[in-house]
Amino acid sequence: MPFTHHSHSGQFCPGHAKDSMDEVIQTAISKKMEVFCLTEHMPRHKEDFYPEEVIPSPYINHQKTNLKKVQIEAGQTEEWHSSNEESYWLEANRLRNKYATQIQIIIGFESDWIRPASRTLIEASLSRFPFEFFVGSVHHTLTIPIDYDRAMYEQARDAAGGTDELLFEVYFDEQLDMLRQLRPLVVGHFDLIRLKSDDPERSFKSWPGVWSRVLRNLDFVAEYGGLLEINGAALRKGMSEPYPKAEICQEFIARGGRFCLSDDSHGVDQVSLNFHRVLEFLGRAGISTVHYLQLAEEELASAPDSRFPRTQIAAVSVEEVKKMEFWKVASN
User: Fold this and answer.
1) Residues 39 and 110 sit within 8 Å (Cβ to Cβ)
2) What is the pLDDT of residues 176-211, one digit of tens each?
3) Which of 109, 157, 217, 220: disulfide with 167, CB 3.0–4.6 Å?
């Protein structure tokens, strides 16, 4: 697809992704993508660092930072996270100017909702830099990562009561808390919780308590006008459908909900990966229109989110998307 609203680079997401942001954008340009949203992760508290975040990255020394070399060699710190965000903002703007005639770049971040205190960190990011949107995501349940590896998933499941069903209920309850607190313009990988579960293909409808929570959360997103991303990362991770599953998409359509498209790429080899399969999925799910973000030259009184006064939401039919040049040159 010629749009993605969710991406990462090894330059600013070391250990978790690869390749420089410049290389990632060059790849998107070569594939004739039209809108590429940058969404590196926001800073987190030290207790929420992932294992690889204590390992130095080859990109760290390329960033403008006041941290001492000994701190860099020892791995990441909260201070490094803050400095990394500043470096990301500066580099993203440099690259937007560099490639302004070839692709529209929108600068945002991916939020991590871990506990109520996460809101303070998110608001700090929004106050430090004039980001143009953010992806609202949940990667933790009961403060434990649920998509990192199976061992951590099982730890979270035990904490929730010992079954996938109970863990899913807690996940969607915490997701609702995130939605209410943040009202993100883009909701990230809505049903990420299924990734490490015993049966990722299982219908959510088979668990009434889980399904009622799914519908409740969809009601809320539709009510405030958020975009649900169709995230192709689930396909490269072995699942048969993107995030979210077709049964969820169909309920969101019934509520008048809007969708955007994301590759959730973590390096050049994942830019637009599996988008042919995503296009097929849109047809099966009954999605006939997709939305994408644009930037206005000036601030708009009618912006869909007052926090982002230049950010607009545009719509295009899936039939029109099929005619775009992307499909002629992209290799998926």
Assistant:
1) yes
2) 999 999 999 999 999 999 999 999 999 999 999 999
3) 157
CA 94 to chain centre: 22
Q: How far is it, in rounded angstroms, from Cα 169 to Cα 179?
A: 15
% helix, strand, coil for the chain, step of 5: 45, 15, 40
pLDDT computed for residue 51 by the predictor: 75
Report how far residue 224's alpha carbon sits from residue 86's, in angstroms, rounded to the nearest whole number: 30
Q: Residue 328's pLDDT is what?
A: 87
Instruction: Name the residue among 109, 120, 128 with its Cα closest to residue 13.
Output: 109
The pLDDT assigned to 13 comes to 82
Report the distance separating Cα 264 and Cα 261, nearest Å: 9
Burial of 93 (0-12, 13-18, 19+ CB in 10 A): middle
Q: Tokens 């039939």, residue?
A: 319
Tell if the pTM clears 0.85, that is, is over it: yes
Neighbours of 238 (CB within 10 A): 8
Asked if 301 contacts 61 with a C-beta cutoff of 8 angstroms, the reply is no
Average pLDDT, the chain: 91
Q: At what angle do helices 21-30 and 78-98 cross, to 10 degrees?
A: 40
59 confidence band (pLDDT: 50, 70, 90)? very low
What distances in angstroms separate CA 124 from CA 63, 66, 137, one per listed residue? 21, 19, 17
Domains of the chain: 29-40+106-329 (3.20.20.140)
